[in-house]
Amino acid sequence: MEAGSAADAARRLAQLESEERIISSKRRRVHDRLDFMRSGAAVQSADHEEQLQRLQEEERELSARRRELHLEIDALRVRLGQQPGPRERPRLLGG
Prior knowledge:
single chain; mainly alpha
């Protein structure tokens, strides 16, 4: 791989990884809201089922986008000579 294209691929990989983190964070928040609504702790309003359905659809859309990102990220990692799949996360303090 040429230096220019490798640099472009590395930049694109960083962009995709950043987008994936944002999407994953949104997806976690949607899961938290779904769990809360399903737990019975949420106030049962007249549109409870409608809200639940909207959240489920949002979760499906976020999950689909996240899967697309993972495929593109893995392809770029292979192209750059890296292992596909999740990268190791930095260890937490004291961990």
